[in-house]
Design goal:
There is one protein chain. The chain is α/β, with parallel strands linked by helices. It has a domain at about 5-170 and about 400-415: Nucleotidyltransferase, domain 5 (2-Layer Sandwich). Helices cover about 40% and strands about 20% of the residues. It contains 12 helices and 17 strands. It has helices spanning about 50-60, 95-110, 130-150, 160-170, 220-230, 250-255, 265-280, 280-295, 295-310, 335-360, 380-390, 400-415; strands spanning about 5-10, 15, 35, 40-45, 50, 65-70, 85, 90, 120-125, 155-160, 175-180, 185-195, 210-215, 315-320, 330-335, 370, 395. The strands form 5 sheets. Strands 3-2-1-9-10 form a 5-stranded mixed sheet.
Length: about 425
């Protein structure tokens, strides 16, 4: 068996796959589960670092410390070369990502009972939209980090292509497939010819008809659900005595995973005190100040994410917001969620339409739509993509596992 693995470092969840014929590809990373949430918690009370579900549990139990999530979103941005303060010390963001990926590697090796010296890493079609230099920089950064934690041989594969390889292992005839990978940070698509015969070939470039992607994903759906449904409770859209609105930037920071900590600075606290004095709806601003004073921004983001997931299955979601002041139960409705994310979904639709044009294909040419990625359950998104390809068969992949399994296959082919 190969000493090469596939690493799916995701915005919300991560997996590591190891190809072993006849056995599941994904390795257990936490409590017997194949996914490790891409979360780090620096526990100040214990002076210890926790990862994944344990990190979230520590945070929700009320330990003092710093929670960080959506680490992948830093790649390709100017923040990547910066640093943040953790437990009184400066921590470069590069080191933060290296710590998490090293933890992934160590856990996978412990489960597999061997060291991995080679890896195929998944990557979105575009780390950064419309900026080829930033996209190249993001991949280079991830390569350098992977090398620093002990991977000597490194290759990259587009995440939707990896998912295609996983689906291809399950089919009996040739199909033209649209891979729809809706992740936490990006929505990526590939049009690929797949078949058992083609799967035997190492070079597959000719089978890939088109790739496309857009920097819209599950965390964006969370953000706009929060802004439309939750942040008005805390004063978003309310007025100051001069008739202008309360500045929206504070709410946007609280609704965006990788900027929540910016709401906790002394500078923001002093600014909000000034805003409070001029606010017409002081009760709503009291709620905002209470949330920030108790550093419950990440808790609120998790509650919103729960609501998004529930609305993927039901018409209504009830959120118990017991850490707000005053505590309340908020009803979220599917039509309101659809309205909040409609512009985002339209951007994704345009990406799929452009993909078909680039490939010179008609909608009727596509046999199958293969859905994967943690946010592929969002109903409005699925309905819009299905409407673009009304005759294509819809197939459900493993939302959190298809990419990792496909990367494992690719790693065995490249390094085996």
């Amino acid at each position: 068996m190969t000493n090469a693995c596939g690493v799916d470092f995701g915005t919300s969840n991560s997996t590591v796959g190891w190809h072993r014929p006849g056995r599941p590809a994904l390795l257990a990373l936490e409590d017997g589960k194949p996914t490790l949430p891409s979360v780090v918690f620096f526990n100040a009370d214990e002076e210890r670092v926790y990862y994944g579900r344990a990190a979230l549990d520590n945070y929700l139990q009320g330990y003092e410390g710093r929670l960080m999530r959506s680490l992948k979103s830093l790649l390709g941005t100017e923040l990547m070369e910066g640093q943040t303060e953790v437990m009184g010390r400066a921590l470069p963001f590069r080191m933060l990502l290296a710590q998490f990926i090293a933890e992934l590697k160590q856990r996978a090796e412990q489960t597999a009972g061997r060291a991995f010296d080679s890896a195929v890493l998944g990557r979105p079609v575009f780390f950064v939209d419309g900026d080829a230099e930033a996209d190249r920089r993001a991949e280079d950064t991830l390569r350098e980090i992977a090398r620093s934690v002990g991977f000597a041989n490194i290759a990259f594969q587009y995440e939707p292509i990896a998912a295609a390889f996983d689906y291809e292992s399950q089919i009996a005839r040739e199909e033209l497939v649209l891979i729809a990978d809706i992740g936490g940070g990006t929505s990526d698509f590939s049009l690929v010819r797949l078949s058992p015969r083609r799967a035997q070939e190492v070079e597959r470039r000719g089978d890939i008809l088109a790739n496309g992607g857009v920097h819209i994903g599950g965390t964006d759906f969370d953000k706009y659900l929060s802004l439309s449904g939750v942040m008005p409770l805390l004063g978003l859209g309310s007025r100051l005595v001069n008739g202008s609105e309360v500045p929206s930037g504070y709410y946007f920071n609280l609704a965006t995973w990788h900027t929540i900590n910016q709401a906790y600075t002394q500078k923001v606290w002093l600014q909000l005190k000034d805003v409070y004095r001029e606010a017409c709806d002081k009760a709503a601003l009291d709620g905002l100040l209470h949330l920030i004073a108790h550093r419950n921004g990440h808790w609120l983001a998790l509650k919103v994410e729960e609501g998004k997931i529930a609305l993927s299955e039901d018409e209504r979601a009830e959120l118990r917001l017991d850490r707000l002041s005053p505590p309340r139960v908020l009803s979220l409705l599917c039509p309101s969620f659809d309205a909040a994310i409609a512009n985002l979904v339209s951007g994704i639709e345009q990406t799929v339409s452009a993909l078909l044009r680039d490939a010179g294909l008609r909608a009727d040419d596509v046999d199958t739509v293969f859905f994967t990625g943690g946010s592929s359950g969002v109903r409005l998104l699925r309905e819009r993509i299905a409407a673009l390809l009304p005759n294509a068969r819809r197939v459900e992949g493993d939302r959190f596992g298809s990419i990792g399994a496909g990367l494992a296959l690719d790693a065995a082919r490249k390094f085996g």
